[in-house]
Fold each of these.
Amino acid sequence: MRPLWSIGTLTAAAALGTYWVVFLSFAGGMLAVVDSVAPMKAEATFFFVPVNAFSNDQGFGIGWSGGWEWLVVPIVIIAIFLLVGARVWRLFRRDRTTTE
């Protein structure tokens, strides 16, 4: 039996989508907090990615830095879920042949 790479790809895509939804929910929550007590600025970290939120009388917004962690975290998530979803350990199974 071989790994099912199509299932691994779908699993990785679902995991990456979930990561983005949770990340944007985190950033939106930060924005809601700083906007409720404006003027204010907040900084936090989400899976090694620095996130900023601000609100003042001139406007409001969210942002995050674009360092190495911005690329590494999604790549690691994709790699882990691709390999788990494809069940890559099936490559290392010994062939069991039956003698009749």
Note: Residues 27 and 86 are 31 Å apart (CA to CA).
Amino acid sequence: MKKFTLLKSMLFVALLCVMTLPQAFAQISDGNPTFRTIRTGNRPQEGTYGIYLGVSASQMQAISDNKLEWSGIPIINFKYFSSENLEWRLSFVANNTTNKNLKGTVEYQDEKMDVREKARDGGIYLTPGIAYHFNSKNILDVYVGGALPFGYGYDNYVYKIDKKNNGTSKRSSFDLGLEGFIGIQCFVADLPLALGFEYGFSGMIHFGQKYKNTVLDSDGNEQVFYTTERPNGTDDLVEYTKLSNKNGRFGSDFRVTISYYFNK
């Protein structure tokens, strides 16, 4: 519940920020902020830029599960209208979490051992996309589009047991996805703002889903093997001398959106 409240606060602050951007950016050229001229909002025209904020159902689930890997649509996007009907999107998202100097004691074969660990995981993703807007009305806007997310994910883990046995477990993967969506947005009064809703399907394939494990014992002997998951000392994982592995997911998603439009 605390994470959900924090996310709502972040979105509220972001909305205030985009509503108070410096006057260096002009409003949309057709948007005269007087109710006598435009009563139903400022519709983007050719050459209009935009900042898009949105939270999807899969992102909410990922946040509640404390998962930082790619999950659906990035929260912040940029838009550009090359014509009144054609919109180009570009998104960038990066995350990293690091846990250092984790200390603990484990029991293995009736023997207690001191363990020190360091872990780091995250990813960097880029999502280009395109959307086509059907009508030119200044109230409601219906559109369809698609996107091609891709990026790099990693998971590095280092441990030391009783200051004698050392080991590492590392994973790096190239991720490639595909998205399709249909959306509707409503322009807010005379402001260059739009509130919307999008629904669609998305999928992602993770290439290189394997962990390379290197173990060095107290005698200096090194052992290298591969697993499909990161070993944690309790799971009985299959150890491979060679391994090629990939996995993917596909499903539907929906999100609520807020867009702010401006011209240079």
Note: The longest helix spans residues 2-19.
Amino acid sequence: MKFLWRILGVTLFNFTFVKRQWMWIAQEAMFAISIAMLAYGWGGYTVIRSTIPVYIMISAWGFGANLVAQTVGYDRISREWERMIASRLTVFEYFIGVVLGTTPFILSPIAILTPIAIALDLGLKTIAIALLVSPIAMALGAFLSLAIVLRIKNPMNISAITNPLVIATTFLPPVLYPLAILPEPLRIASIAIPTVALAEITRFMSIGACTTSLELSIASTAIWLIATAIAMIKVLRWGLEP
């Protein structure tokens, strides 16, 4: 049970940040409401039915690629990382504590979109499917971002990397807008973008819609998970360095 207490300690330590920056939670809620209104305004029931599960998934992606990666990056540069290493914490306990401590930020869009889905008679299946895919999206986002962030020495550059990374992978590619509007060659090529592949998987599992081969999206996601995990592990140093 001692490892649970260690995880709880890291969780509570990071939760203090949530209490100080609670307006970020409100910001996430406003984003979720805005996306739902835009989707419904553009295409009514058909579009919002697809948008809600995908937005929950990419919120988890952004949570991992931005907030989790920033927290770990700032801990490393501020020497908090060394204090954690000097304790009995394992790297697994540390990361789980960071994720749990900052979880209120990802719970905000879920809390907003769930009643909207119920009110529009979309069913809880859309939320449940999105929640199943979200841990994979969060882990993949964190791996990708940390593979970059852990190489940074200037703290000013951390958010300058993570924020554009999230925007570039969620708003530019066909994630919130349908993949079907792209010409055929670009549809297949865009599956190489991890968020597009995850969006396709989410849409297929929640509403049965998939523009390209589901197997291709699953293969792309698996390749990205393996590649980013290896890249992160190579730069991760969980030990006192000379």
Note: The CA atoms of residues 77 and 155 lie 7 Å apart.
